[in-house]
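Example S7 (structure tokens).
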């Protein structure tokens, strides 16, 4: 098990970290060779916030600066999602050889604070290379995180809901949907496009509020026997940057990751 801060781990905490380890291993291919991914089931985290012992435990997983932020959140959903995203990111960092700490670092050694755009950033230590890039996402019961030491990165987790069909004209085109025509379920097609574009936005356009009209899906590889789908997205602009996005299904969810790779 990944090391965490000292102290007695309550049963709910042991279940939480067991799930983190299992899901990270299951979806490791999404992160590519230079990335680390983590998924956290927020229903595993919720019980820890509802009891004094559990709340004390999760607080020891935060840096002092993170703990001050956490105590300032009063809305339960915000508290749960923020903490879940941080713990998922710390799980990535604890397994990343370029995280600026030793492999045996405690969770509380990592401090992820928002930058000027509200994006999570890891403090850089003197004498170390630049800290790994971090991306965090959450959707209706899950938090996800991605870490990369070689480039900017982006992750998105999206639940397949009817809302995707209602707003499809805002984020995709018939030409893009045609690239996914071999996938029979409409919500899966829409969710894959949404998640892929959101991951690219977080990677390359993190200072922008939306990806509408800025990112185009230009290629999609569909092999039914493969669990990881590969897509290529292009960012509109003078450089016409394109990046590879890896996409996987997880029950009713879709997870998309990019670490800025420019070649398939």
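Recovered sequence:
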């Amino acid at each position: 098990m990944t090391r965490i801060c000292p102290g007695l781990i309550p049963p709910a905490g042991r279940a939480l970290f067991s799930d983190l380890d299992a899901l990270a291993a299951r979806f490791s291919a999404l992160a590519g060779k230079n990335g680390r991914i983590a998924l956290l089931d927020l229903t595993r985290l919720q019980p820890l916030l509802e009891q004094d012992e559990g709340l004390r435990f999760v607080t020891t997983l935060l840096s002092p600066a993170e703990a001050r932020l956490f105590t300032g959140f009063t809305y339960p959903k915000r508290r749960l999602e923020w903490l879940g995203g941080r713990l998922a990111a710390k799980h990535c960092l604890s397994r990343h050889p370029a995280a600026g700490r030793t492999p045996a670092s405690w969770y509380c050694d990592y401090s992820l604070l928002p930058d000027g755009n509200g994006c999570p950033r890891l403090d850089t230590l003197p004498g170390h290379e630049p800290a790994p890039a971090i991306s965090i996402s959450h959707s209706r019961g899950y938090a996800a995180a991605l870490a990369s030491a070689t480039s900017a990165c982006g992750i998105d987790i999206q639940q397949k809901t009817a809302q995707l069909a209602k707003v499809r004209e805002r984020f995709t085109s018939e030409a893009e949907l045609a690239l996914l025509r071999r996938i029979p379920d409409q919500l899966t097609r829409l969710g894959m496009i949404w998640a892929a574009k959101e991951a690219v936005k977080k990677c390359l356009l993190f200072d922008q509020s939306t990806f509408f009209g800025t990112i185009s899906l230009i290629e999609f590889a569909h092999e039914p026997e493969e669990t990881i789908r590969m897509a290529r997205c292009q960012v509109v602009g003078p450089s016409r940057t394109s990046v590879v996005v890896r996409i996987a299904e997880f029950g009713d969810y879709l997870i998309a990751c990019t670490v800025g790779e420019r070649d398939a």
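Notes on this example. The radius of gyration is 18 Å.
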